[in-house]
Amino acid sequence: MAVLVTGGAGYIGSHTVAALLERGESIVILDNLQQGHREAVLGGTLYEGDLRDPAILDRIFTENSIDAVIHFAANSLVGESMQLPGKYYHNNVYGTLCLLEKMQEHGVKRIVFSSTAATYGEPENVPIDEHDRTLPTNAYGETKLAMEKMMKWFDIAHGIKWISLRYFNAAGAHESGKIGEDHNPETHLIPIVLQAALGQRPHISVFGDDYATPDGTCIRDYIHVSDLADAHVLAVDKLRSGSDSAVYNLGNGQGFSVKEVIDIARQVTGRDIPAVIEARRAGDPAKLVASSQRARTELGWNPVRSKLEDIIASAWSWHLHHPNGYSK
Ligand code: UFG
Questions:
Q1: Percent of the chain having pLDDT more than 70?
Q2: I need a labelling partner for 8 at 20 to 30 A (CA). Which of 25, 35, 174, 323 fits?
Q3: Residues 213-235: what's their mean pLDDT?
């Protein structure tokens, strides 16, 4: 039996492929390589194509014995989703519909889904747990929530069981040094801070220091990408053991401000990292921290790379050795 990983050439997808390979799973990857990188796929069989192409899904499901899907393929830039919501509905929501219909047609009954803290929007409570209100404040989060709801109805009607993993802030790189974070454009805090440390940017712009937090900058819960990858493997196991559908938050449960991240990056890199305070970025909640108790209890998930120093050090090692990402 093989696992189909859609978006397996992307940042979190490629680390999950690595985790599946480490335990000897057969893997098939579908990626259109718009955001993903061929070099990030460390093994398995790569099909280059798009979820919205029924022919490639038919080929994958007939040429391989797939018993579970891990679904990453999606656009994931919050800012872009506000400018181009149609792109997000088309690729994310319609793409997921195409996938679920083909799973139903080919009798594949398990899916692990790459979801996000952005499904909650402005939090009611911190730490956020899975019972909290979901009221996305951007189109990206809204499409991810729509995808979760679609899976709920495909479960009720067709018995496709799903586990949705709502990540907080993914960061870091694989311990092998072979794969890491390479987005174009890059919008995430830690890689941008490290690009400033490398001298590739003149400074890091801090988006707002007037939030209601101790130092005025936004607080986030950073989680190592390999810990996230491990959760996907556990979720596949849980579905294979006959579990019902479920939603899990994935974070460390500890928040760090933007200023704290920059200070830790200065210590880890030993470099000067100039920071400039700028205006708030639209749509940023002041504080997002996860309660991942449910994932720990029900999935048996135990993040082991939790120290922010270590997360940033692993990202720094990737950036030092791949200053221009996968393009050498
Ligand atoms: N930030 C800066 N300067 C930058 C980049 C980011 O100050 O150059 C700040 C942001 O304002 C935010 C924090 O750093 O306060 C983290 O920003 P990221 O862009 O790294 O991450 P987000 O918290 O905005 O986004 C992440 C995921 C999204 C997901 C979201 C959930 O990347 O996919 O969490 O809210 F939707």
A1: 100
A2: 323
A3: 98
CA–CA gap between residue 178 and residue 164 (Å, rounded): 27
Backbone phi and psi for residue 153, each to the nearest 5 degrees, phi listed first: -75, -30
Q: Is the CB of 207 under 6 A from ligand 1?
A: yes
**CB-ligand 1 contact for 193 (6 Å cutoff):** no
CA distances from 80 to 160, 177, 192, 219 (A): 31, 30, 17, 22
Best residue for ligand 1 mutational test, from 132, 187, 189 (most atoms within 8 Å of Cβ): 189
Which residues are annotated as catalytic?
140
Does 328 have pLDDT greater than 70? no
Query: Cα separation of 317 and 319, whole Å?
Result: 6
Here the tokens at position 9 are 């050439």
Q: What is the pTM of this model?
A: 0.98
Tell whether ligand 1 has an atom less than 6 A from the beta carbon of residue 288: yes
